[in-house]
Structures are given as structure tokens and as C-alpha cells.
């Protein structure tokens, strides 16, 4: 009898589910802006003239995009790659040809050097990192591939880039004070907050309860500007706007006002890159 009981107990134990080990916590992700915070200034300027748009260049662009970009942007360039859902900011849909970072007026196509610059610099505050490990020729190839996803590049000609006058000789207190007045008068704080923390009263209006792509209000304190945080970067962003977002162009402002507003916005940055950190005292 004991033998039968022992055999039954053994069978029960053998068929029981093995104990499940507790799930290991996922390692914390490094801040996505770390690369920009520690890297030297990258202006995304082409180091060599743009090559001719040949079949070989386009073929190289297809191969590079498929291998390195399609995971996020999708093979068709529609922003629906297999990794897109895991990103904090949805990848750009190239088929619409709506680009935030341009040197051209709002509503128009970017020029090729705009696209080259974005590939080279990346988009700060997103998982679109700088592709500086690619040669200039490879980045030009990717420019052609990005353009191939939309018929707009075949049907429209890019506008002439907007002129950027020389900036003021220095970012003085007077310049920033003027910018602060403009910031308040133009109600920039309605979205970006009184101190630039992306906590203005209008933020609630842009929350999407359906779970679709929300509108990302820029937190100036973090210094994560898509184009960059240099004076000229902020100036061009204000002048051209960020197409595809509620951030329209401030093209009605005179250049001195735009420089003043740019300087004040920069004064709100609290997390500055390593290159702007004063050297230690001897």
C-alpha cells in the first residue's frame, strides 16, 4: 500500500508545473539625449559637395535604409516599422513629406541639405540618433531614398531657404529681457509654461485619449531641441515652424525680435551639454 501511495505522489510531483522564477527587471534605458549631451557640436554641414543622383547612389540608399532605418520607419517609409511602437516618439512618415526641420518656409519641402543635416545631427529628444558613423556619400544616398517615398519631391520644387541674418554680437541681459516680453506677449507659455517646463495650461488640450500620437510640447529646461539649441538653431525653428505640429512659423516677427526670443528661450535651458560646462578651476 505504501508503495502505491509513494508512486502516486511521485507521479503528481512529476506532472506539476515547475516553479516560475521571478521575472528579472529590465535594465533601465539610458536617457535618449545622452549622446547629444556628451558629444561635440554637430552642425550637420556636408563636408563635401553633393554627388550626382545616379542609379548607383539610389541603390546604395535603398540598401542602407533597409538595413538601418526600416526597423523604425518601415520598408515603405510610412513610419510603421516593427520597432516603431517601442519608441517614445513615433517615426516620421516619409510618404507625407511633412518635415519639421527645414530651412524653407512652412508648408514647403526641405532642400537636400536639410535632410542631410537631420540624418547627420539626428533629432534631439527622440530615438533618431546622429548617423555620423556613415560617410558623407552614404548620407547623401539616404537623402535620395527618403525623397523617393513621396511623389511631392517629383511634383514640387523646394523653395529658396529663408535668409538668416547675423546674430547679435552677444546674448546680453537686454536682449533676453526683450525676448521675455515677446515670450509673454505671444503667449508662448500657454504651451511651454511660464518657465519653459512644458507645463502650460494648453498642454491638456493636446492629450489624445485614443492613444494615437500625442502632441509633444517642448520642455525648454531639458534643452532637447529637435534641430539644436544654438542661437541659429532656435532662430530658424521659430522662423520656419515645425510642420505637422501646432508650432507654426513666427515669420511675421522681424529678425531682431526673433533673435531676442531665441536668446530668452535659450536662457530657460537648465540641462546644458558637456561642451558648455565651464572647465574646472585649476
User: How many strands, what sense, and barrel or not for the largest sheet?
Assistant: none
Count of distinct strands: 0
Shape: globular
The residue ranges in which pLDDT falls below 50 over 5 or more consecutive positions are 1-29
| Count of separate DSSP helical elements | 11
Verbal overview:
The radius of gyration is 25 Å and the shape is globular. It is an all-alpha fold and 282 residues long. The protein is built from 11 helices and no strands. The longest helix has 14 residues, at 2-15. Helix 8 (173-185) packs across helix 11 and helix 10 (231-240) crosses helix 11 (255-267). It has helices at 2-15, 34-38, 55-68, 70-73, 112-121, 136-147, 152-155, 173-185, 189-192, 231-240, 255-267. It is 37% helix and 0% strand.
Layout of secondary structure:
Elements: H1 2-15, H2 34-38, H3 55-68, H4 70-73, H5 112-121, H6 136-147, H7 152-155, H8 173-185, H9 189-192, H10 231-240, H11 255-267
List keywords for this structure.
37% helix; mainly alpha; Cytochrome Bc1 Complex, Chain D, domain 2; 282 residues; 11 helices
How do you describe this structure in short?
By secondary structure, the chain is an all-alpha fold.
Amino acid at each position: 500500500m505504501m508503495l502505491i501511495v509513494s508512486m502516486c505522489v511521485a507521479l503528481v510531483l512529476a506532472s506539476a508545473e515547475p516553479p516560475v522564477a521571478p521575472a528579472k527587471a529590465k535594465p533601465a534605458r539610458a536617457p535618449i539625449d545622452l549622446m547629444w549631451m556628451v558629444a561635440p557640436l554637430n552642425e550637420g554641414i556636408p563636408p563635401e559637395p553633393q554627388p550626382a543622383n545616379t542609379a548607383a547612389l539610389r541603390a546604395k540608399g535603398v540598401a542602407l535604409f533597409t538595413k538601418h532605418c526600416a526597423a523604425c520607419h518601415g520598408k515603405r517609409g510610412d513610419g510603421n516599422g516593427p520597432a516603431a511602437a517601442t519608441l517614445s516618439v513615433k517615426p516620421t512618415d516619409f510618404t507625407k513629406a511633412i518635415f519639421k526641420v527645414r530651412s524653407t518656409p512652412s508648408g514647403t519641402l526641405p532642400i537636400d541639405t536639410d535632410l542631410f543635416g537631420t540624418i547627420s545631427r539626428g533629432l534631439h529628444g527622440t530615438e533618431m540618433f546622429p548617423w555620423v558613423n556613415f560617410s558623407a556619400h552614404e548620407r547623401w544616398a539616404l537623402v535620395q531614398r527618403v525623397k523617393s517615398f513621396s511623389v511631392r519631391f517629383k511634383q514640387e520644387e523646394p523653395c529658396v531657404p529663408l535668409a538668416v541674418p547675423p546674430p547679435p554680437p552677444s546674448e546680453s541681459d537686454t536682449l533676453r529681457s526683450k525676448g521675455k516680453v515677446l515670450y509673454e506677449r505671444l503667449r508662448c507659455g500657454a504651451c511651454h509654461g511660464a518657465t519653459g517646463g512644458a507645463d502650460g495650461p494648453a498642454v491638456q488640450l493636446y492629450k489624445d485619449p485614443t492613444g494615437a500620437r500625442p502632441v509633444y510640447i517642448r520642455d525648454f529646461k531639458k534643452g532637447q531641441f529637435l534641430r539644436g539649441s544654438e542661437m541659429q538653431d532656435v532662430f530658424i525653428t521659430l522662423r520656419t515652424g515645425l510642420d505637422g505640429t501646432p508650432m507654426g512659423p513666427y515669420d511675421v516677427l522681424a529678425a531682431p525680435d526673433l533673435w531676442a526670443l531665441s536668446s530668452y528661450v535659450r536662457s530657460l535651458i537648465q540641462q546644458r551639454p558637456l561642451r558648455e560646462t565651464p572647465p574646472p578651476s585649476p
